[in-house]
Amino acid sequence: MTETVNNGQKTGGLTIERVFSTEGVHPYDEITWERRDVVQTNWKTGETVFEQRGVEYPDFWSVNASTIVTTKYFRGAVGTDAREWSLKQLIDRVVKTYTDAGQEHGYFSTDADAELFEHELTWLLVHQYFSFNSPVWFNVGTSSPQQVSACFILSVDDSMDSILNWYKEEGFIFKGGSGAGLNLSRIRSSKELLTSGGTASGPVSFMRGADASAGTIKSGGATRRAAKMVVLDVDHPDIVEFVETKAREEDKIRALRDAGFDMDLGGKDITSVQYQNANNSVRVTDEFMRAVEDGTEFGLRARGTGEVIETIDARDLFKKISKAAWECADPGLQYDDTINDWHTNPETGRITASNPCSEYMSLDNSSCNLASLNLLKFLKDDDTFDAPLFAKAVELIITAMDISICFADFPTESIGQTTVDYRQLGIGYANLGALLMAMGLGYDSEGGRSMAATITSLMTGTSYRRSAELAGVVGAYNGYARNSEAHKRVMRKHQAANDAVRTLHVADAQVHKLATTEWAKVQEIGAANGFRNAQASVLAPTGTIGFMMDCDTTGIEPDFSLVKFKKLVGGGSMQIVNQTIPRALKKLGYQPEQVEAIVAYISEHGHVVDAPGLRTEHYEVFDTAMGERALKPMGHVRMMAATQPFLSGAISKTVNLPETATVEEIEDIYLQSWKLGLKATAVYRDNCKVGQPLSDGKAKKADADVAATTEAEAPAKVVEKIVYRPTRKRLPKSRISRTTSFTVGGAEGYMTSGAHDDGQLGEVFLKLGKQGSTLAGVMDAFSIAVSIGLQYGVPLETYVSKFTNLRFEPAGLTDDPDVRMAQSIMDYIFRRLALDYLSFEERSMLGIYSAEERQRHLETGSYELTEASELESLKSEPEVEVAPAADAKADDVIEATVVETKTAHTTAELLEKITGTAVDSPLCFTCGTKMRPAGSCYVCEGCGSTSGCS
To answer: Keyword Electron transport, does the record have it (predicted)?
Structure first.
């Protein structure tokens, strides 16, 4: 794309260059479209929560992407002619609005340039190269207010009028489905006097009212939580109360849960607990962090006069912060001096707060609209990153994002004025983790960080270059004149950071070379024209829009797991090995037969440890957020530090820690994040929070494990320890039993099972034909052990889940029509016991059905005699089918392994099933499946719902 600029003077508009679309062909006419039925069911209740049939999508869009876009973004009442039914309608609604606004406000040289802009933008969207943030798809081109921003920052002063206005403004933002953040540090502390002579309430007390408001709006409106961020400066006299607020509430949740109250997220009793609707962050200064390092005292200052009214030990406060984060994941830290050192508008005001996910940091009473690029789309066949094509996409997208501010509506007049005056944009990306893996680069490696840094630098450099060009066409932002020197200083800081990057291979060197060119143009064109936008880039969670683009990974995140859950056209689902893995293995030099063996191993085990033929030095390429080789916490921090110098804003990301992490480890993460130049850091220790719904297995574990940490690691709050001992329920002298003869792979045997009077299994005895004395003794001992366990209350389903799918010889065909194949004798025995002694519902959860039930499912789609319900989603026979992925190319190595699976409904649940470990995430309110982390939030890959971020 070229532009018309003339030494800072406004000119006739942009001349758009054709890069992506084909001349003479509309982007829609280049692809094949198909009709699909979108039916969404809550798998727990069996309730159909959404249904729209005959929707139109490109044939290369996944079922998941089309489902989420149809349910979330199509406008109009379902079942009426007003309802959108094609992706074409959705994209046209948005793109034509942008194009018309661009023409109206003088962005294009000619009508032909406007039409070309429309085609280029349409091509990028329909081919999933990028996506705007959710509010654009919700609102643009509809009769609703044209809200395009997802991120808001409010302000509150030390007056009752301002505090009540804060409640009102936040409520309107929540009602619209967005989130907001603000800093409460202007409100005087509870240790200061009012003008009337009384003592002030303090900011924490006013947080209660705001939290109740957020909870009320959430429960009365949408199913998602209200998203909000509350920030308090570290020198505020109420800082200790603020830090410990949510940790104390977490203790209350535990006590109430143990007393029998429903304290899950969304539970009927959770509303009695306060402060649960906000993320809390402490705004720390360099002065405080140096005091922590030196072990010196730090002064807390009165809000009105600024005088020190209390002195505290900095290390003691820092430990309190880290201890609270260890207990409940709050508060996070925001590094005030670093944030404001990169601020382009300091003459207007300081940056005091952020949006709920911490990526947008700008002036009070402002907003930011976001868009994210799909990085994997720019990976060329030679496994290098197409930097020139990426830059062309960035400049087109930044142009569109700036145009949106011309027609956008805002929730308050002050937010609208600030946004129009400073035109904050937030371009970012998704699929970084997948890109690095496909290139054979470890996420926590120098090569991976160098690649991420150069891509981020190129993105922001191209964005500001385009912003300077736009300033020459339609003018600089209104606040630029008073902030011009500061803005140019920050541009020089970005350029210096780019010069400091040391590339390690050809791929990142090519990207870095173009980034260096872009930053040179930023200085040159910016000096002549100024800039159209006060900020350009952030790294957002990309939850729902990540699914729209069929991304494997969200935002800056690594891959969640090596196995994925994939829905299929026409119904059903598959377990599929991450399709970037074969490409990575090929890049690393493995032969096709080696690739096939490694992929098959990953499909079964969910990780690469001990995969056949895989060299240990290549393990790091396949490290993931969860699983056997989960990334170390500092691996996340180092990746954030590599990209932060090239972002206008910050990064939405949580540093994940294992349940065994200590308070001292969290202290170190917070300290290292400050030293490495991050703007914000949040942590989450696995299983630290009680107030969220967990999977059944995780909930049982949480109830059983009262305190697994040592005294040195955990806060000493246990007053007494109650020990529960099981009692044995012996079988009556005379009991009902059954004897079953069986054959597995040609080996014969007999099983006798005895039951209590109520029909509950109480004993099992096994005898195998043609067995030696040693094997007979082992089988007798095994039978006694299982029988005693049953009598002491170990559920039969526990034994079934542990012993089914065990693989050893003899294995193969059986003579039992209900269990046609067995992977071992143990596999057969416990499947037979499940069929004989467990209810249909219990067996369904384990994926075990009789021959009659399987036949019924084939004929009617339901295993039960009743109409189809949640059981439609559950697993059938444990037979495994291995085949190439549906979209694999015939002349390539095998792209993926697919395994039929119906017990899992999302990738998070699939990972739990394969690895036997729990994923500590909430369940989705809409479809009942387990969500997975996305930045600082959670997102449901079943329906696209998020826990608060757009």
So the answer is: no
